[in-house]
Specification:
Elements lengths: L2 H19 L9 E3 H6 L1 H4 L3 E8 L5 E2 L4 E6 L7 E6 L12 E10 L2 E9 L8
């Protein structure tokens, strides 16, 4: 096998690995602001959604079966939606933290989360 053939084979392997690695990833889902979810609930109720926000202080309740809290919009803290999550407790989940989450909007004011990712806080302070 000459150098040109080896290059084509290597490129083919890289493309195949990329396709297999991205198989099933849904790129159509964009993160929807809490304000959009609450202002147009009819568009999202019953749908799988992704959103980001901040856990409202004083609302985080952790029990063995359920984690619940109020998620507020990052830009307007007066806009909020209830969240229930039955998965494993993320290690750094806490009030006042920014999170990204996905799940199903089950009503105009409630999301059942299936995945929560807590944003990293900065290691450095001024």
């Amino acid at each position: 096998m000459d150098k040109k053939q080896k290059t084509f084979v290597a490129i083919g392997v890289i493309v195949a690995v990329a396709i297999i690695g991205l198989w099933g990833v849904d790129f159509s889902k964009q993160s929807i602001m809490v304000s959009e979810l609450t202002s147009n609930p009819g568009n999202y109720t019953g749908e799988k959604i992704s959103t980001t926000g901040v856990i409202k202080n004083g609302t985080l309740i952790v029990t063995p079966d359920l984690i619940s809290f109020v998620l507020v919009d990052k830009k307007d803290s007066t806009i909020e939606i209830d969240v229930e999550y039955t998965g494993d407790l993320p290690a750094t989940l806490d009030e006042g933290k920014e999170i990204s989450m996905s799940g199903t909007m089950v009503s105009a004011n409630k999301i059942e989360a299936t995945q929560i990712v807590v944003g990293c806080s900065s290691k450095y302070t001024e």
